[in-house]
Amino acid sequence: MIETVFQYLTYLDGIFWSYCAFLLIMVLGFYLTFKNKFFQIRQISNIAKTFFHFLRQPHETRRGLHPISVFFASTGGMIGIGNIVGIATAIQMGGPGALFWVWMAGLIGAIIKYGEIYLGIKYRVENAQGGYDGGPMYFLKAAFKNKFIPLFVAGLLCIYGVEIYQFTVITESVSTNWHLNHFLVVGVLLVLILYAGLGGVKRTGQICSWLMPVFMATYLGMSIWIIGHEIGTLPAILSNVFAAAFKGQAAVGGFAGATVVLAIQHGIARAAYSGDIGIGYDSIIQSESSTVHPEKQARLAILGVFLDNFICTLSILLVLVSGVWKAASPVDGSRLVQNALGMYFPYMEIFMPIFLVICGYTTLIAFFCVGLKSAHYLWPVKGRKIYTLYAIFALIFFTFFDQKNALVIMSIAGSLLLITNLLGIFRLRKEILFVDSSEVVDSQVLETN
């Protein structure tokens, strides 16, 4: 019976991403891109200036958190297992052509993310803890002029905030590779998540600021070395990527083949899931920033999407250049990347679980923070306590199911959030200000309230 339910949910997920979510991302993304003259591309150098401008700012603020700390908390939620394991499923299901649509999602998704963060900060409110509460629940009130839609989105964010997919991947990888007791691994990871998440965005940002550079340096170094080692195969692989993006991919090895629709669906869906494009998580996190200029923090969101998309690209290229995607026996996404790395580096059965714990932990705690804030929005008195109990139950429950079942739940919740939030962003599109960085980076005004 449970398998039948998940089969139905998988079918529903395919409809959402193949038609509704896909069309909204493409239409809104291209509309904002052309209307604002490819803002996300022509402002690259100034986006970097904004980042270094924030780095030079004092860390003491009267209200909110330092913009860089918020940026790392945001990036910690985006960059993680979704960039390694989740994105690998795009190739398993959609073929090499999915990579092209991953790039497309990153390009147009960056400007959507800009609008999402801008509106989240613009409509945020001060809270009793000396920070801010913002995100889609607040700007959707202005967009739709009713209370039901913000409550609906807050409920979905509560579901999305319990990252059952990445939790399942981590616990399975650690218990299987290291032959540890499954319940022991689940219990330890739960304690670590609760410790960080209950400390709020501040504690999460501090942890992510320490862990993210380690993750990125290690993974980027290994990936670039492997791709460089196979540089001679890249022209043929990239040619196949572009061809398969518009013609589909025939069956090869253990790969059953994929149509253009599957390439689009899985490329866009996994990139949007990895980069949290239009989903609302990032808007809640970055609304905690101490900056009084929404456009500044929104620029950092563009940088985050591009960085996320770059790591997704490396993961897919690893799978393609190593040839493991054509293996006769299909394997889970975590094993797919582990097998690719294992062809070039030893001891991957030891390294990969550690690696997944590091990069997945940052996502788990960032998402949990968002879930807690959403639960508080729904029920200010007891929302956080009830949500904590729900999170414990859901995380344990889904460790007994296939990873793909957990991913379907996250994907459906994400697609519903994306559809609702993108409609809200479109209705408020005239309120989003696209400002050249030169107008604000040179400002010497202290960024505190």
Q: What is the compact description of this entry?
A:
With 449 residues, the protein is mostly helical. Helices cover 74% and strands 1% of the residues.
What does this structure look like?
- By secondary structure, the protein is mainly α.
- It has one domain (2-432): Amino acid/polyamine transporter I.
- Helices cover 74% and strands 1% of the residues.
- The chain contains 21 helices and 2 strands.
- Strand 1 and strand 2 (132-133) form a beta hairpin.
- Helix 1 crosses helix 7.
- It is globular, with a radius of gyration of 21 Å.
Set out the fold topology.
Blueprint: H1 2-35, H2 39-42, H3 44-55, H4 67-78, H5 81-86, H6 88-94, H7 98-122, E1 125-126, E2 132-133, H8 136-144, H9 148-160, H10 164-177, H11 182-197, H12 200-229, H13 234-247, H14 260-275, H15 281-286, H16 294-322, H17 333-342, H18 348-378, H19 383-397, H20 403-427, H21 438-441
Antiparallel strand pairs: 1-2
Question: What does the overall shape look like?
Answer: globular
**CATH class value:** Mainly Alpha
- What fold name stands as the CATH topology? Amino acid/polyamine transporter I
Strand count, sense and barrel status of the largest sheet are: 2 strands, antiparallel
Share of residues in strands: under 5%
**Low-confidence runs:** 438-449
Whole-number mean pLDDT = 85
| Spatial gap, N to C terminus | 55 Å
